[in-house]
Design a protein that fits this description.
With 108 residues, the protein is of the alpha+beta class. The chain contains 3 helices and 4 strands; from the N terminus they run E-H-H-E-E-E-H. Helices cover 32% and strands 29% of the residues. The chain has a 4-stranded antiparallel beta sheet, with helices on both faces. Strand 3 and strand 4 form a beta hairpin. 25% of the residues are buried.
Length: 108
């Protein structure tokens, strides 16, 4: 679906991220604080996928090395209603686009 936008996480997205997290892991009291720590430690590597103004997925990352062409994904989940619609492909590619041309597969 072409109406998908991937952007950096904003603190106002946290409630939506937690709702998606509960669909996938069901244990917000354990995983929620871990996600919040990652967001606070490296906010520039945390992304949400949005469709028609609604957060439909998220990706947390430990960081992306454009020089080494590598990155580490921490948590990644898509809202149940939006699975198999390209969210899982879009977020990592978007994260790569913050680097120099050709720095990641699929990056610009």
């Amino acid at each position: 679906m072409s109406d998908l936008e991937v952007r950096r996480f904003e603190l106002t997205d946290f409630e939506d991220v937690m709702a998606i997290l509960c669909q996938s892991w069901g244990n917000p009291e354990v995983v929620g604080p871990n996600i919040l720590r990652r967001i606070q430690a490296n906010p520039e590597f945390q992304y949400v996928a949005e469709r028609q103004g609604d957060v439909v997925g998220f990706m947390t990352s430990y960081g992306i090395s454009f020089k080494e062409r590598t990155g580490s994904v921490g948590y990644f989940a898509t809202d149940i209603e939006h699975r198999r619609t390209g969210v899982a492909r879009a977020a990592p590619v978007h994260g790569c686009r913050g680097g120099p041309p050709g720095s990641c597969a699929g990056g610009s």
